[in-house]
Amino acid sequence: MPDLSRRRRLLVLAICCMSLLIVSLDNTVLNVALPSMQHELGASISGMQWTIDAYTLVLASLLMLAGSTADRLGRRRVFTAGLVVFSLGSLLCSLAPDLGWLVAFRMVQAVGGSMLNPVAMSIITNTFTDPRERARAIGVWGGVVGISMAAGPVIGGLLVQSVGWRSIFWINVPIGALALFLTFRYVPESRAPRPRRVDPVGQLLVIALLGSLTYAIIEAPETGWTSAEILAFTVVALVSLVTLIGYERRRREPLIDLRFFHSAPFAGATVIAVCAFAALSGFLFVNTLYLQNIRGLSALNAGLYMLPMAGMTLVCAPLSGRLVASRGARLPLLLAGCAMATSGALFAAFNTASATGLLFTGYVLFGIGFGLVNAPITNTAVSGMPRTQAGVAAAVASTSRQVGGSLGVAVIGAVLAGGAPAGAPRPEFLAAAHPAWWIITGCGGAIFFLGALTTGRWAAATARRTAALFPDEAPQDHHRARAGS
To answer: Helix (H, G, I), strand (E, B), or coil: what is residue 198?
Structure first.
């Protein structure tokens, strides 16, 4: 990629953030629309789970392929293709005649989405080569998630209440078209000098692993945890995992380079991403159903109720980027884990649902935690990794987020479905949600523990040893970056 002026670099960052905005808006807006979709389409809790997880599963399965493909064919080329497919998928979702078609069109959306965020992050990584400047750029990137969380529930509530749930997919089309025009005009093309080869076997194993695991978790409450169907899918998931690890170890250019995980900061960032986004997706899923189905709020009022969480995410995301740039990843990760765990415990241990003050306190704490966690995940994932494989390294971090999102909806939804089927009265729903809050608390605790474990001297030494495993490739400014130390 040629050297760009500061103004051009900031413009590239803005364009990449537009792609994140439409993807993030889509998720937050969809959560607010779930009850309306449930009533109109006659969906069960598992049906609502699939409208979310059909998207995140396809996204998680294809992110690493998209990252390596962008390194090979050109990042701008794959990014523009993603914008076209995502916008088309959004239009099709708005026209879906029933739940089955909606799930199918969500998968089309996901194919486009897989070519956006990891590729955009790779573009940012290769545009902002100075570690401190890159950390600040990633902080802005994380702030877009906060903007989408703040705007998404309100925009979604307004659209659902005034026009209907189908309109939530319309907003992606004009934003996608504008981003496409600006990409063609301002984003330079870039490729990796030695991109990885296609790994179709690894790709199929990833799809089999994630698909079978999520299916087993979502359908188990209805089918039965010990039913032959669920046990069969569980076995498929386990066999796929073992086969994937064995196959990727032997392959010279694997889809998932397991050498990355020799670095404690990288491995920690991957697991932290799963925990953080599992907590977020579960948090949004439970709260959306509670506020609208149990408290009886409109879609707009439910969105307004969650503004404290979204607002704190918006404030804390760029602050986290500056903290990572100046002091490293340790402090924001510890604060994030503590805030998210406290929020989950507040909902689990007290009758927060009946006390509006405690409810908002829980929202504020969760927003602080989630706002702080995103920047250190991304920065740690790419620091110390070869810049020529930036697409793959960033895609692993993005995949971890989507895997976490899928598992959060699947597990929390399964807990709710097992204790309170769709339309359950208030006491039954609150009782079923109680273990869900403890799961979210556990995710926050894991973030705190892993943040402490993977950001010390021992972790930094493992990162240096991992960089030595790539002798022919320049590390991603590992000696200058402070994300993992």
So the answer is: coil
CB of 237 closer than 8 Å to CB of 213? yes
Select from 114, 4, 119 the least CA-distant residue to 72.
119
Average pLDDT over residues 373-390: 68
**CA–CA separation, 131 and 122 (whole Å):** 14
User: What does pTM read for this prediction?
Assistant: 0.81
Q: Is 475 helix (H, G, I), strand (E, B) or coil?
A: strand
Taking the C-alpha atoms of residue 188 and residue 101, their distance in angstroms, rounded to an integer, is 37
φ/ψ of residue 475, rounded to 5: -70, 160
Mean pLDDT (whole number) for 210-222: 85
Residue listed under structure tokens 């070519």: 115
Q: Indicate if the alpha-carbon torsion angle 450, 56, 436, 363 is positive or negative.
A: positive
Structure tokens at 35: 């009850």
pLDDT at 384: 58
Query: pLDDT tens digit string along 132-148?
Result: 777 778 777 766 766 77
42 φψ region: left (φ > 0), alpha (ψ -120 to 50), beta (else): left
Q: Are 149 and 374 in contact (CB under 8 A)?
A: no
CA distance 253 to 209: 20
Q: Is 297 helix (H, G, I), strand (E, B) or coil?
A: coil
Torsion, Cα of 104, 105, 111, 115 (10° steps): -160
pLDDT reading at 65 higher than 90? no
Tell me the per-residue pLDDT of 263-293, one tens digit each, with 9 for 90 and over: 888 888 889 999 999 999 889 888 888 888 8
